[in-house]
Amino acid sequence: MNSPMIYALLGITLFSVGLYGLIVREHLLRKILALNIMGSGIFLMLVALGKRSAGELPDPVPHAMVITGIVVAVSATALALTLMLKLVEASGSAVLHDAPKDRS
Amino acid sequence: MEALDFALGLFDILLVFLVLSLAWLVMSSEDLFRAIVLFVAFGLLMALVWVRLEAPDIALAEAAIGAGLTGALMMAALDRLSSVKPIQKVAASAQRKQLSLSSKVLPLIALVLIVLGLGYALLSLPEIADGLTPNVKENMAQSGVKNPVTAVLLNFRGYDTLLEMVVLLLALLSVWSLGGERKLSPRSTNPILGSLCRVLVPVLILVSCYLLWVGADAPGGAFQAGSVLGAAGVLLLLSGWHVEQKYLLWPLRFILILGSGVFIIMAAVLLLIQGGLLTYPVAQAGWMILLLESAATLSIGATLAALFLGGVPKSRVDQ
Amino acid sequence: MGDLLTDAHWGVLLILLPLFGGLCSFLWPSAVKFIGLATVSAVALSVVGLGDQLLATGVYHHAVGGWGAPLGIDLYADGLSLFMLMVTALVGLGVSIYALDYFDQDEARRFWPLWLLLLGGLNALFLSADIFNLYVTLEIVGLAGVGLASLSGGGAALDGAMRYLMATLLGSLCYLLGVALLYHSAGTVDIPLLAERLESTPPVWAALGLICAGLALKTALFPLHFWLPKAHASASAPVSALLSALVVKASFYIFLRLWLEIFSVRTEGVDDLLGALGMAAIIWGSLQALQQTRLKLMIAYSTVSQVGYLFLVFPLAAIGTFSAWSAVAYLVLSHALAKSAMFLVAGNLMHFGGHDRIADLDRAVQRLPITVGAFALAGVSIMGLPPSGGFIGKWLLLNEALNQGRWDLVFVMMIGGVLAAAYIFKVLGFAFTQAPVTHEPKGVPAVMEWSALLLAVAAIVVGFLASPLMLILGIGETVELMGAGQ
Amino acid sequence: MNWHAWIPLFVVVSSLLPGLIIFGLPEERVGWRTLLNLTGAVIKLLLVSWMIWGVYQGDHFETRLALLPDLDLVLRAGPLSLFFVALSTILWLVTTVYAIGYLEGSPNRSRFFGFFSLCVTATVGVALAGNLITFLLFYELLTLATYPLIVHRGTDTARRAGQTYLRYTIFGGALILLGTVWLYQLTGTLEFTPRGFLSQIDPQHYPALKIIFALLIAGLGVKAALFPLHGWLPQAMVAPAPVSALLHAVAVVKAGAFGIVRVIYDVFGVEFSADLGVTTPLAWIAAFTIIYGSLRALFQDDLKRRLAFSTVSQVSYIALGVAIAGPIATIGGVVHLVHQGLMKITLFFCAGNLAETLGIHKVSEMNGVGRRMPWTMAAFTIGALGMIGAPPVAGFISKWYLGVGALEAGQDWVLLVLMGSSLLNCAYFLPILYSAWFKPTPKSWPEEHHFGRQETAWALLLPPLITALMALAAGLLTGLPFSPLEWAKIIAEREFYQP
């Protein structure tokens, strides 16, 4: 096993750990962290596998994809955090409840 | 040479182990503050990983955004969270106790299965694959820049980048739509922050300009430059930067849409002249890309700083 | 002049126009309504232009930047894309007119930029032939959707928007991971090239699973629908209409497109799984809708069940023909029109009575006849009764199911229709009766009543336009070829 | 321009258009509404007369519009369709007049008359449908158009009656849809053809065809109120009287019965269905429904409910006549389509008059009412006698042909059913007639209104008189060229003898 593959495997493991956190942890801030970790995992896999090329340079296309991906991730995170704060202001809880409250 | 390879391999394994444990700790630690600190550390290590993967462009972006800005956003959110609702931590831990064993174990099994399945899928990929490297190489001469990543970002897949700029703007629009107005914080009384700002902000702006300029030939470019600019903006906001209300209306909005606006206009103009969306004339590609990148840098920087503020900015001086 | 019209880059215009309009409306908040309506109308005209062009020349193909796949991104429009663009323009126009009177000035300033950018994202999505580009457009659509869903503020809307954001981000990430796997399997993200190069290998299967799961989550396929009812029910009426009618369909379109072009020949078993989930969605969604006491929640659950119908096509299409695919396109169209009309109606009723409790509609049929009429007409299409677009879609689908002896699908479709009638007439029945507690109703602006009615009437009228619409759908023969190629 | 290709469409549009305009009319524009209604009805009557004359001379009227690439919407005027169209057109005109009088001064009349027109549009569409999918389309439209009429009063009882009505009809519609799609799968066509289009089909499909037949008949049986699918009909009595009249005599129940005739004649073909062995069970069910409906009617004190169960019983004569599968019985069944319509609408008009004028809703309140409202009760008597089957009212003709036809087809048991049913009819109608004419008048009526010198308003009195006279004429003038009986003979001929 070469090092790109190790990092690619790390990538999918991060994805899964994030997914696990997203499902199991209830606090919204934690869920947002989980989504970020999942994203990092995917980026890692995308780039690491691009390093399999025979030439001396890694594939630049995944790099470009990941750079834009990181910027999108931070903007989505900012939106999620703002939404969370507003939700906490309105409902007093940073946890999504399953039992629907009657908000008439 | 072999010793170096061995050392690097060892380093790789250590790094993988560290990144993984940090990610796990971010998810499992009880304290949210701790989790965020660990997440910032995770981001920094990720930057190292990118270096190891010969992706300096990403490493720059990750260091500025993944570790810096995201961390700052999270910290600020946590801060506001506790000021809004101090009891919520209790509520969260009470919730946690109700989690039965099966609701924790089942996802864990699923996690292992996903890792195994995806791992198997990855390992059955061919050992060597060129991806699009040859295509990029072949067309670099016509791209107008020398850095292949910039060529992909702004030329070969420039249309993606146009849309990504829109995503960035959309996130801000949504935040503004949600957050209402937010006054700029009063001038910081913290002398260290103030002096840090006075030194750091000009440096950051310089770095940003450098990254923007060098992006054509070497690692760097609009996204990295914009992130650094955004970081400077965040610092200014923290230290209580005073901006007059009149600059916060039209001029700010103008800067915010500058990146996507110039992109769209450029696309339309090129469509008319060249008959294709974002089809640059080879001779002019260089400066056109620089123009796009400059506009994008300003917008990204302004947007990131505005996202950090979390609402429509309003001057703290009441008119 | 004629050449100019057929040679114009309508497809590119469809993407740039709304994006530009969105930026303008952000820059000049005082003119949002004018900019918004002008942009949406221009987009509708461009769709007509594109349609004219496609009918004359077949498919539209544009290599962005002049590079062409695999290095560059290709834009591509065939009958299916045109069909979706048309649906978007129609619903968009109706909802835009409604929104003119629905929002006050402050809300309008926030609504229009988001909606125009969403429109741009949707158009870009339907025109893309590149799976990574599709990811970016999905992000536009998702974030704009979340922004819109939280527009009305208040605990319920924020709660719904939060669920929606989590679901849509998770869905995007799964999709992106699938894209990454496909890229590294085939060295391209261009759909036609992928179709040539992909083989049945473990990574491709993993990618198929991830992409399907991600898109199913975004499309709210049972049991991944959990986020939808709250998000769609608590948003403001025009937003609910857009989310239910268009945004959900966008991810379904990608599903359909990838299935048609990439995955269809490699999917024994997956199609049956999708069909089974679709059936479960129909039954579960309808039963839930029947139990709701709130109109908007009922309509949202109805979306869950209607999405189920869309997925019935996958088991049928395995040996299917043109008619299976046109059935699903028809269902998408008529559901989009009918469901947007229903949400607008719900908006009118809330405006009118200040609540959406079904049992207290309080003689709405006397006092808001146009609104209730719109609900009834939209309901006809949702139930799949003739004459309506919904009926045509259901007829085609039933035909195909019987043709292949899929009695399970036939059975579920029949049950679904009866259940839909039950929940829709529950509402209509209470619209005739007097509520125990009456109060002073508020007048509803005529524009809001009529735009809802127009959309509902459109859902009926498309029931008579099957022949021309199928002609459009057949452009490029993507759909037909896939049917014949099996 | 080829007029023949458009007239069937115009017939449908002639009530659709006024209906749609009426929806938009403000409540107080009574004059305009009346004008639109009557103009539409008269134009429709003229167009239908034109078609009848044309078809009599062998002309061909057909409108064909593409619905799906390989499936058309077809409106075609044949003898059977015209038979039903003529009935609904004439009775619509009469009922409209009646409804104008009945609803005078009550709220939401624009809505009422709008849906009233839609209802007739759907009925005419059902009658003219040239293939099964067109039939289905208008059949469902009829369900939708009648629902608002049933819940028109907006009370909770009305709403529940509406729900019950829908529960039955939507379910029935689903069955027909399933049968239609399945049939289309097997044959690739849905075009109504005299003597059916299935006789050439591969025998391996016979079991499937039996199920399809059951699906279609069950779906149609809901509206035709075949036992055990009749439950909605008595409940739907909460609707205003003109609606009940329309439901029972013209629109809903008749559409179901007409559909049964259509399916047996023009989809399966009488001979083929007899060969398939599906008509005998239908005949048994129809016979059972006849007896069952009469028995239930016997125990109703509410006048409209008694009439409703009477409808359950009477409409099954049509199904019975067709299911006996002989030419003469067929004449009896088909002609009853019109005869029952004329008689039953008279009875409902009269019941409405009693309720409006004197507040009478129950049979037990009808003592001596014949002296207070002689004209109304005269019409009622003609209708009731017709139902019993007493000559010379039209009902006698139906029963005569049914009986003779049954004997001819060797189904003697039908005679017992007819006799039993007639006896039961006597048992629930004659006491009404007796108490109305011969029992003393009570001191006061439950809720009396006065309308000048007449016993009730003109608009309420004329319609029952006209329909009663028509019922009499249909029984007396059977030999005239355009009498219902003659027309039914043409239909039967077309079905039974090769041209």
Compile the SSE list and pairings.
The complex is a heterotetramer of chains A (about 100), B (about 325), C (about 475) and D (about 500).
Chain A: H1 3-24, H2 28-49, H3 60-91
Chain B: H1 2-28, H2 32-52, H3 56-84, H4 88-98, H5 101-123, H6 133-143, H7 148-156, H8 158-179, E1 181-183, H9 191-214, H10 222-238, H11 245-248, H12 250-274, H13 285-309, E2 312-314
Parallel strand pairs in B: 1-2
Chain C: H1 2-7, H2 10-27, H3 32-57, E1 60-63, E2 74-77, H4 79-102, H5 105-127, H6 131-149, H7 154-186, H8 191-197, H9 202-219, H10 228-234, H11 237-263, H12 270-291, H13 295-311, H14 313-317, H15 322-353, H16 364-367, H17 369-383, H18 389-403, H19 407-432, H20 446-461, H21 466-473, H22 478-485
Antiparallel strand pairs in C: 1-2
Describe this structure in words.
The complex is a heterotetramer of chains A (104), B (319), C (486) and D (499). Chain A has 104 residues and is mostly helical. Helix content of chain A is 73%, strand content 0%. Chain A has a single domain, classed as Helix Hairpins (Orthogonal Bundle), CATH 1.10.287.3510. Chain A contains 3 helices and no strands. The radius of gyration of chain A is 18 Å and the shape is elongated. With 319 residues, chain B is mainly α. Chain B folds into 2 domains: 98 residues; 189 residues, no CATH class. A two-stranded parallel ribbon of chain B has the order 1-2. Chain B is globular and about 60 Å long. Chain C has a domain of 219 residues. The longest helix of chain C is centred in the middle third of the chain and has 33 residues. Chain D has 499 residues and is mainly alpha-helical. Chain D is globular, with a radius of gyration of 21 Å. In chain D, helix 14 packs antiparallel against helix 16. The mean pLDDT of chain D is 85. Chain D has a two-stranded antiparallel sheet with strand order 1-2. Chains in contact: A-B, A-C, B-C, C-D. At the A-B interface, helix 1, helix 2 and helix 3 of A face helix 1, helix 2, helix 3, helix 4 and helix 5 of B. Chain D: It holds the Pfam family Proton_antipo_M. Chain D: It is found in: Cell membrane; Membrane. Chain D: Its main location: membrane. Chain D: Keywords: Cell membrane, Membrane, Transmembrane, Transmembrane helix. Chain D: This is Monovalent cation/H+ antiporter subunit D family protein.
